[in-house]
Design goal:
424 residues; Adenylosuccinate Synthetase, Chain A, domain 1; Adenylosuccinate Synthetase, Chain A, domain 3; 3 domains; four-stranded mixed beta sheet; globular; binds guanosine-5'-diphosphate
Length: 424
Amino acid sequence: MSDCAIVGINWGDEGKGRMVDLLTENYDIVIRYQGGGNAGHTVINEYGKFALHLLPSGIFRKNVVNILGNGVAMDPENLWNEIEYVRENGVPLTPDNLKISDRASLLMPWHRELDGLEEARLADKKYGSTRQGIAPFYSDKYQKKTVLAGELFYPEKLRSHLADLLEWKNLTLTKVYGAEPWTMEKLEEWLAGYCEKIKPFICDTGKFLRNAKAQGKNILFEAQLGSLRDLDYGICPYTTSSNTIASYAPVGSGIPSARPEEIIGVVKAYSTCVGEGPFTCEMFGEEADKLREAGGEYGAKTGRPRRVGPIDIVATRYGVQVQAATNIALTKLDILSYMKKIPICTRYKLYGELTDDFPFPSALADAEPVIEYMDGWETDISKITDWNELPENAQKYVEFIEKEIGCHIGYVSVGPERDSIIIR
Ligand code: GDP
């Protein structure tokens, strides 16, 4: 079996965690290659229901090694809290099944603080950050103003590096934002606390992966968020600060020679979006409330109600293209079972013209959705696992999307549980 990447096609929250949890059975290694503790992957299995933030979703499978690659925002505090939460629920977690790249940069405690300060400064123009420090972290990473996880093994050099960073960061905190400065004492506390706790998991994951590949092991790359949140290809500035697309997987995972042959794009059967920014297909009022309730669309990390809408063909087709998806997993089809008529955003109207193309970010806010309807199936499909047993109208809905986005839909998910899946 070849390597595979599981990625989000839209705005995130498509159900990637659920697909990784299902498919890890066939893989030896699962790697998170970008993003940080701002993710919220929900997984339901024999251990219970979990909202994972930083841990790879393969953590529940025996014999799967989970890796946090060099591309992630390695937040020791978030990670340690999550390790404890997962362990308390009976999941064994040791340096044998969880490894942190020594080349992953550490999210410093001041990054979270800076995120909040900047969103407060932006006031009604805020980006809708989850305030987990992700944007300040990545800016500092690219300025080479943060610490590599492996530096924890060189305490003397680390102390001197931290003193330099502290001096520089305090200029921003105090002079730009008028906030309190950080102190070396507070940093020492952080080092002795969270950093010491995660230290046993840090190793040379690049070497581990090269050896694993030489032994023929298979890798599953797990992305966070979706195409439209990609730093380069998404809806700037309402993106995340890392690359969510599959082609970043080899860089962010620690195995640059990897070429995942299969790229499974996860698409929800309708649209949801967390935070600010243009969301062309957005529904409002009672229609939106009903869909939000039916789908339980509240943020896994923040509890924020998600914005909802019909499936957006224009955005989804674009998402499939930038991910170079080879197969699609369509999730939450069961949620649409209550609808008599199913709305679909088939095109956009932009500056008086109809278009199939996803607009440039500056124009996106001016786009209007063109909505068409298909007949619903109005029956419970959540126990169906055979394509031929799916009501005809549900099949037609899936086939319509498949044709419009130009990619095979190989998985149709009809429930949150591991086995609620139709494989085509
Ligand atoms: P992720 O960040 O892409 O992993 O997505 P989230 O975890 O934020 O959102 C997916 C949510 O939908 C989770 O609560 C899943 O348990 C749930 N889910 C996933 N697939 C299905 C499905 O096919 N049907 C239903 N009803 N729920 C699903």
